[in-house]
Every structure is written in C-alpha cells, then in structure tokens.
Write a structure and sequence with these properties.
With 512 residues, this protein is α+β, with helices and mostly antiparallel strands. The protein has 12 helices and 17 strands.
Length: 512
C-alpha cells in the first residue's frame, strides 16, 4: 500500500477477475459496490488509452507472449481525477500453450509522472535560458581547456555566428586568453575555493580583435568541468577609461581656471570697490534728486499761487469794469475787456496744464491691473456732458493693461477730449477706441473722423505749446499731448499719430 501497488488475477477457466484492495483504492471503487470484470476495468481506463490497453492484452494472448507491460491513464470513480498507472501482466499456460490465468500488478505512478513533467519543464526552461539569454553560459574541461558546451552569447563574444558554428570549430578556450597568466590565476582561484566571481581578462576573437570578458564559474569536481557565466564588458571598460581621461582633463582645466581666478581676484576686488563707490555716488544722486523734487514741488506751488493771484485780480477787475462801467464803454472798450478776461482764463488753464505736466514727471509710479475700456468710457461720459452733440462712440470692451491708474486716466482723458474737440464740427462725428496687432505687438488707439492734420507737421504734435490748428477754432494750451507722451514714456511705451487733413486722426500707443 505504501508503494501504491495492487495485484489482480484473471482466471480464464472460471472466467473470474479478482482485484486486491489496493487496486480498488487506486481505481476509486469500493469492493462491495463494484463487480470486477474486464469490461468494467476497460471503462475505468482513460478514453484515449483504452484501445492501447486492450491491444496490449489481446496481442500478448494472440501472439503467445509471456505477458505485457504498459503505462496508461485511468479515471477514478466518483472524483473524476485522472491518474497514471503502470501495469505488468504474466500469463500462466498449460502444456498446450493455452492460458490458464493471467496475473498482474498495478502501480499508481501519478506522482512520478508529475515529477517527470516538472523536470521536463525545468529542463526546457533552463534550455531556453541557456540558448537565448544575452549572458554567456559555458562548460569547459578544466584540464585541457577544450569547450564542451556554450550558448550563442559566448559564440558571438568570440566572433562566431552562432553556437553551432563554434562547437563545430576545433579550438581550446585556453588559446583565446591574451595573457596566459590570467588563466593560471583563474585556475588557482578555482582550486582554492571551488569557484570564483567577477574575474576579468582580455580574450582574442576570431578576427584578431580583443574583448574584455568578466565571468564567474564553479568547479564540478567529480567530472572535472568548469561551468560558468560570462559577459562582454569591453564597452563598459572603454567608457570607464574615457571617464578617467575626461576626469583627468577636467581636473587639469579646473586647476588652470583656479589659477586664473586667483590672478583675477585682485581685479575683481577693484571692480567691487568701483561698484561700492558708484553705489555711494548713486545714493548721493538719489538724495539730491529727492531734494530737488521737493524744491521743484515748492516752486510749482509758489508759481501756481503767485501767478494765480494777479490773474484773479485781472479777471476780477475786468469783470467789475464790464459790469459797473458798461454804459460808459464803447463797443471797442468792451471788446478789449472781454479779451483781457479770456486771456486771463487761458493763462489759468495753461498754469494748470503746466503743473499737471510737472507732476506727471515727478509722481510715483504704482502699477496695477487697469481696465482701459472702462477708463475710456468714463472719459467719454465726462466729455459728453459738456458737448452739445455727442459723436457716435465705438469702444472695444475688456481691454486690460498693467499701468499706473492715475497717470493712465490723465492720458486717456486728454486723448478722448482731443477726439471730441476736433470732430465736433463733423455732421456724423465718430470716436473710436480699440486695439490692433503689428509685428506681434498690441497697439492701442483712439481715432476720430474730425479735421485731422498734415503729416508734414506730425513731429510737432507732442511738443509743448505747439499747435497745428487756429486757437479761435480749437481752444487749448498745447500742453495736453506733451503730457500724454510723457505718461506713455513713463510706462515704457511709445506713442505716435497718423492723420489726413479733414479725414480724421488716429493716435497709437503701446504699453509693455
């Protein structure tokens, strides 16, 4: 039972088949529930094996053989499990050669079959690895150095096309060592330790070139074999050599640069001293500029106060003369007084514009996100309140820029005020604000279809006190566009204008 061996007897005289208990157990039958017959036995055999089993018995009977031996599969009763068995039968015959009975044994060899299958699978796996891996695998005779087996990787390392070509070529691995002493060192390690790892040596290939191999191996003492693995590390070694060369060159360059740097330290210290001196001068200049700005602010206030006082007196006395002595003044006298009042009023506006221009140059710059479209609309609404007939308005929405809100409001107000003023006499006046693209840059513009200007005099547009139109038709101080230009310049932008006489004008500007 331990060996899973049962026995059976087929009595041909009595036509009776007898099974031992172990046979019943192997086939999965219970003695009291199963009537052992040859037909019942065949039904328990795996379907694909039945013909072979039946033929083995029949041929041994028909051809007067002593018996037969066969391995086949069975299907166990109940569980349906497929098992492997080994059967052996011996016939007992009478003097005439007729079979009296057949005696046989049945052994369950399922576990052996499974082990054999595992061994075959492991052998196939190892064989596939051996043949297909990029790592060289080899076996040589330790005494002669003759090759016994190796895979394609080793063959290609040594310059052969494949394993078959290498094995068919008579040569000794020992002959391929560039330095015979390397093989002697390897054998000494092998004899001392029974194995070695990461041994490196140069080998000669078929074409005479040299490669560097790194390999590990072990001694199969009873057979005198050396088995091991190997790798071609020629490129790795070349890379290491290149790294060493480059490292040496780099160290040399660093040493040279260090010497140069040491030489230039004094010059650098001189530069630092110069920078420190310049920084001190810049601080003094900034302090001087700040003091100058304060003085200019005080002067501006003084100018504003000292000039406005006599202007108020001139305007006030002129108004009193017109009111109190109107009956004593002729038409020419009244006209003169009116002109005096108008000149005083214009002088006041000029003082205001000059002060604005001065403040624009000195004011602090506080950048922020500005909705330029909304700022334009506010300026338009302010102008519309003082205009008898408002022009048609076109404003592109959603234009956002980065700039100083207060300064940009002054610039936009001046541009919109000019557009209203110079298009006021047009029957279908139009004022536009929008953007356009030029060379990848955004240009902002304010456009009108008013009186325009002659491009010959475009250079005078932004100069203070310069006028291209008659004062009586288009009043103004001539400072507004100069103020706009200074604001745009403070933002790092540019401003220019294009126009035609009686065809309108367009003022373009950029903002970073």
């Amino acid at each position: 039972q331990i060996a899973h061996i049962g026995s059976w007897t087929l009595d041909l005289i009595a036509n009776r088949l007898t099974w031992s208990d172990e046979v019943y157990q192997i086939f999965g039958f219970k003695p009291q529930e199963f009537n052992a017959t040859y037909e019942a036995f065949l039904n328990a055999v795996y379907p694909d094996d039945r013909a072979a089993v039946d033929n083995a018995y029949s041929e041994s009977v028909r051809e007067a053989q002593a018996g037969y031996e066969i391995e086949h599969r069975i299907v166990r009763q109940g569980s349906g499990e497929v098992r492997h068995v080994h059967e052996r039968c011996v016939h007992e015959r009478d003097e005439a050669g007729s079979i009296l009975r057949s005696v046989g044994i049945v052994q369950d060899i399922t576990e052996r079959k499974q082990i054999e299958e595992q061994l075959r699978s492991a052998e196939n796996t190892y064989r596939n690895i051996f043949l297909n891996t990029q790592i060289g695998m080899f076996r040589t005779d330790i005494q002669t150095g003759l090759k016994m087996d190796a895979n394609d990787a080793v063959a290609q390392f040594l310059g052969f096309r494949n394993r078959e070509e290498m094995l068919a070529t008579p040569f000794s691995i020992a002959e391929r060592y560039v330095n015979p002493g390397d093989r002697e060192k390897m054998i000494a390690l092998l004899k001392a330790n029974g194995k070695f790892t990461d041994f490196e040596a140069p080998f000669r290939r078929n074409d005479g070139t040299t490669i560097i191999m790194r390999f590990s191996g072990r001694l199969i003492l009873d057979k005198g074999w050396l088995e091991g693995v190997s790798a071609d590390i020629t490129k790795e070694r070349q890379a290491q050599d290149a790294i060493h060369r480059l490292t040496a060159e780099l160290e040399q360059r660093v040493d040279e640069r260090t010497k140069e740097l040491h030489k230039s330290q004094l010059a650098l210290l001189n530069v630092v001293d110069d920078l420190n001196e310049n920084a001190k001068k810049l601080t003094i200049a900034n302090e001087s500029q700040e003091a100058l700005n304060k003085e200019l602010e005080a002067f501006s206030y003084s100018v504003s106060h000292d000039l406005r006082a006599p202007l108020r007196s001139i305007d006030g006395f002129s108004a009193a003369l017109l009111e109190d002595y109107a009956g004593k003044l002729d038409k020419t006298g009244k006209d003169y007084l009116t002109r005096v009042r108008l000149a005083a009023h214009n002088m006041g506006e000029l003082i205001d514009d000059l002060l604005k221009l001065s403040r624009v140059s000195r004011a602090g710059f506080r950048p922020a996100q500005v909705n330029l479209s909304e700022m334009v609309k506010e300026a338009i609404n302010a102008c519309a309140k003082t205009t008898a007939k408002a022009p048609k308005i076109q404003v592109l929405d959603g234009i956002m820029v980065n700039g100083d809100t207060a300064l940009l409001r002054i610039a936009i107000s001046n541009l919109i005020d000019n557009a209203f003023k110079f298009s006021a006499k047009e029957k279908n006046a139009l004022v536009e604000f929008g953007t356009t693209q030029e060379n990848g840059n955004t240009l902002y513009y304010v456009r009108d279809n008013g009186v325009g200007f002659d491009m010959t005099y475009a250079s005078k547009l932004f100069a203070p006190f310069q006028r291209l139109h008659n004062f009586d038709e288009f009043p103004g101080t001539g400072v507004g566009l100069a103020t706009v230009q200074r604001i745009i310049y403070r933002h790092g932008g540019k401003i220019w204008a294009k126009g035609k006489v009686n065809k309108g004008a367009t003022f373009y500007f950029t903002l970073p």
